[in-house]
C-alpha cells in the first residue's frame, strides 16, 4: 500500500517550488490567505509548511503583515560562492582526463537544453540546468559530501539566480561560459578549464550578488 504524503509536506514542496520558480519576485511578498487560495488547501498544513520554510531561511513570517520572501544577503552570496570555488575548482582538477565521450555528450545536451530555455525565456528551467551542469562535474569526481553540499547551496541560490537570469543576455553569457569550460575539458587542458570555471564562478558571484 502506497504511503500517504502528509498535507504539510505537500504544502512545503509546493510553496518552495513557487519561491524557486520566482512567483513572488515582483513583490517579494505573499500571505496565508493567498496561499490557501492558490494551493486550494486548508490553513493548518500551510502554517506548518511556512514555519519549516522560515527555519530553512526561505521566508520570514511577520505577524499581522504577511510573508516576506528572503533573498540572500551579499555576504551570504559571497560565502556561498567562495565555498563553490573551493569545492568545484578542487574537483575539476581531479577529473581532468577521467571524462568519457558519454560524459561530454551529456554535458553538451545540458548546454543544448539551456539554449532552448534561453530562446523561450524559460529562466526557471535554465537555472535548474545551470545547476545540473556543475553538479554533473561533481558527480564524476564522486565525493558524496561535495555533492550534498552543492545540492543544498543550489537551493539557497535559486531565488536570487532566477531573478538575475530574467535578463536574456545573462542566460546567453552563462551558456558561452559553459561552452568554454567544456571545450577546455574536451582538449584535456587542465589549466584552461580551471581558469574558465573560476572566471565563470567569480562573474556569477558579482552579478547575482
From TrEMBL:
GO terms for molecular function: DNA binding; DNA-binding transcription factor activity. The keyword NADP does not apply. It holds the Pfam family GntR. Keywords: DNA-binding, Transcription, Transcription regulation. It comes from the Bacteria. Residues 5-72 form the HTH gntR-type domain. Coiled coil: none annotated. The keyword RNA-binding does not apply. This is GntR family transcriptional regulator. It comes from Peribacillus cavernae.
